[in-house]
Amino acid sequence: MRSASERASSPRDDAIRLLARREYSRTELAQRLAARSHSPEDIGGCLDALAAEGLQSDARFAESFLRSRVMRGQGPAKVRAELARRGIERELVTATLAEAEREGEVDWFELAAVTLARRFSPPGDSPRERARCERFLAARGFDFDQVRHALERLGAAE
User: Where would I find the RecX third three-helical domain in this sequence (predicted)?
Assistant: First the structure.
């Protein structure tokens, strides 16, 4: 149970406390503040001020989120969907992924190959085993070409 002083905290205090732990998208932060019974007007003003001060940034959140998902071996389709679900605009998602590729921070083909190799030993010639590998990568958000590349690399490792 929260104390009376915590219940009386301002949206800014709550937002700063949340942002001290990790980056949040504007949408996520608004949801968290609303759950703490702050008014929509107060939340909007607070988030505008935090963004103006550079304390909250959807671009910074998207970059951080992308890095964390690449470390987990997730593909571009899944990353796009997750960022959209967290309220990041499509243009910003596209720009963030493109910038990461341009800067060499992520190679989706190589990531698919590494992710598959971590999970599976070289696939046999069985269509069933190959299908398992394909489903695994597709579920992680990799496209057909990336899946095919990963399967070729895994097969070459035999």
Answer: 105-151
